[in-house]
Input
Amino acid sequence: MSDAQHIDRVVEVASHPSAAARSRLAASWRRSFEHHGLDPGQKAGVQRVTVEALTERRERSEAMLRVAAPKLDALFQLVGGSGCGVLLTDADGVVLDLRTAGSDLATFDAWGLTPGSDWSEASEGTNGIGTCIAEGRRVIIHRDEHFHTRNTGMSCMDAPIFGPEGELIGALDVSSARADQTEAFNHLIAAMVAQTARQIETDNFRAAFSGARIIVANTDDSEAATLLAVDRDDLLLGATRGARKAFRLNSSGPIKSVPASDLFGRDDGPTGFEKAERAAVNRALSRADGNVSQAARMLGIGRATLYRRMKRLGLGGNPD
Output
């Protein structure tokens, strides 16, 4: 498809009154064209923040960057050999970190895929990073699905990263400008990106609640990090985005401190948490040879709390 054909196609789709209802891609093109006032044929390169502004953004995202660094390295080991680069952005779509082969660095710099580049949808229109952030979901933007004609040589696979309070804190991106990269290969990479983003989110949550007991759910949503943080009295301290959705808690911000057992007991809640709790209690009782006081110490909760939990779960233990 020529540049002129791409421009005509984007303008036609984005200008249609029912664009938002036709597909998510059409809705993004319409946002780019109507809401952000972008021109698909615009030739100017990607906007970049100053060195000082990038330093400030990296400082604000220090916790995420520290947790993410080894995960970025591991993901790059898997995809770097095929000419892909791994990028981490903040919640505004500004690139904070990059992993790419030395031989590909000039190419990525020419495409604007370097730290400090602004890939928000407001700046670049439909693209992997910006659209992932705008919609809060994993996306694949393959070549001519991009809004700007100058970006149609790229394929981008992205997943959002949510913070300890359920807020969007960044996006993980794998991008490639290889002409022979297929959509099937994109889907394979996208699965790895989603898994890595989930690992970053999980480790970031654990670090934020390092003194708490973490309960991990067994749910049908394999893409969501579903964890709860509770204190020694079994009171809820925090929950990941996935847990907030599963238990119908507020989507972001501080959480009301309620007994975790109140959440587990909901008839409409997922059974995975109760299974995880039962397994944890059984393990502690087994290691303590059924001694409830010893098992409670292992779990970091009071004996009375453990007795209540055991009664609800239908478990028994040896008298102290």
